[in-house]
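Escalation from tier 1.

The customer reports that the assembly of two entities below gives different structure tokens on two consecutive runs. Tier 1 could not reproduce it. I'm attaching the input and our single run for tier 2 to review.
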Amino acid sequence: MDTETTMKELHELECWELLRSREFGRLAYHLLDEVHIAPINYAVDGNRLIFRTTEGSKLLGIVMHQDVAFEIDDVEADHAWSVIARGKARVLEGDEAREIGLERVNTWVAKDRFVLVAMEVTEVTGRRYALLDG
Amino acid sequence: MDTETTMKELHELECWELLRSREFGRLAYHLLDEVHIAPINYAVDGNRLIFRTTEGSKLLGIVMHQDVAFEIDDVEADHAWSVIARGKARVLEGDEAREIGLERVNTWVAKDRFVLVAMEVTEVTGRRYALLDG
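Tier 1 run:
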């Protein structure tokens, strides 16, 4: 049916609930003049998202430009939702890193990711959609 | 098991095959000084990805900064893959837009998206991962 979609903005609390219910999303970040995107595991810590990465990874472009965006979504047969967070990311060092601990982030891939990055979320929005028939 | 992951780079042809097999991904783009990310339907046309959007959408920030990145992925119980494309996007107008046609892009949400955007893909990379136990 080519009818109008039902789209609903999610409340900020729902967005955080969805963020806490997942551990995989996509991070968009600046690298010099370019925008890059990478699939990544994460964990929620208060109003921050925590990532693990490696020395020398492109993701460390955030050291030069902290502005990042992050997305999770889910698509089912008749509905979908997505949550988008924006904020500032920075590498955690020393006590800050130890306080979180690498094991906080359940990385599905290589465990040799010894750099923790925290994204301070300044804005989170979400939408739920009833999907149209193809 | 906390063993090393098996990660495999996908061949460019595999990446395009995966891109052609899907119709939903995430687009990262510049908006003034910020990086934004949005879930979006797409279609493959040659070496281009085609999107539909609306007048006044934030996505039209691409008019000012064409550099974009796009990602699709799939996560199963014991493996995952992702494909990342980078390139330049621009709004299609006149004959170029008519040649493609709105119906080329199967939008799951509102059909009132009358602006076609083409992303000329300049680089595509993909990875397949065998996932570690949680």
